[in-house]
């Protein structure tokens, strides 16, 4: 999806553009969790997925940022590195496992508050339009 810029193109479609790319991301999460069974790899892939979600829910700017944040390519390279026993990737992922876990919590909170903020804007505009009539 990254090489063909499908993620930013899907981002142009409201709601579907935010949900559909994450369904494709689930395959990386599944492989790291149930096939490779590495906690460090799983949290690293989860961090990349959450960053992709966070970037994707930012209106308009998220579409542009999706071009530069290539989570599919990163996750694919991590899995291939683990399967091929690439010492550099394994060492890097294992060293950053704890900090990645903390980043997952921070990104999750950021996604929550950004979603609440955007929802309050949508509801404010909705009530403003309703009160016009």
Automatic annotation (TrEMBL):
This is DUF4112 domain-containing protein. Keywords: Membrane, Transmembrane, Transmembrane helix. InterPro entries: DUF4112. The chain crosses the membrane at residues 12-33, 45-65, 102-129. Pfam families: DUF4112.
